Amino acid sequence: MKALIEKTYTADGRAELGKIFNMCEPFTEPPISKDIQFFLANVLSVFGGFIQYAGGCRLPDVSYFCNLIIHDGDTDGIGIILNAWKIYDQVFRFEECFDQSYENHLEDLSDISFVDNEFASYRSWLWLSCTELGFFITTDNGKSIFGSSISLG
Q1: What's the whole-model pTM score?
Q2: Name one GO biological process term (predicted).
């Protein structure tokens, strides 16, 4: 994870991340910190999603996921994270590309027209998680492999 975070520090690194993670648009230059945090939070949510849904109808168990992400002897951090990202995309289906813009995400969540039932249910689930259950994908304490990349604030 350290190598991935370090790539967010330089324009070349951010451009590389944009390509390998199939971002709809490159990070702005200079970068917006919320966009980088949003991207890193989405990387974290891939791992959280596998843990949360392991043993359910979509994934057998956590060890199955771990075996998948380290296939082909990929042992560097970014390779493993990218494998997880691709597997998550196959299971949960992202859009054509990944929009790392935090502002665009807020705009999407503000749309109350409910044209898409799946997005409407996501919006409701996110509201419930944030207001009632506690949805804190954060690394504020810095004591994990993710460092202090995702602020609670």
Answers
A1: 0.74
A2: proteolysis
